[in-house]
Amino acid sequence: MNALANDQLRRLRDIATIMEEKMPDVSITFGRYVGDTEEDKKKGEEQFRLRNPGVKPVKSELLSREEMRINPPHILITNYAMLEYLLLRPKDSSFFDGEFAKKWKFLVLDEAHIYSGASGIEISMLIRRLKDRVCKNMEGNLQCIATSATLVKEKEDYGKVAEFATKLFGEVFEFEPKDSQRQ
Question: What DSSP character marks residue 144?
Answer without folding.
Answer: E
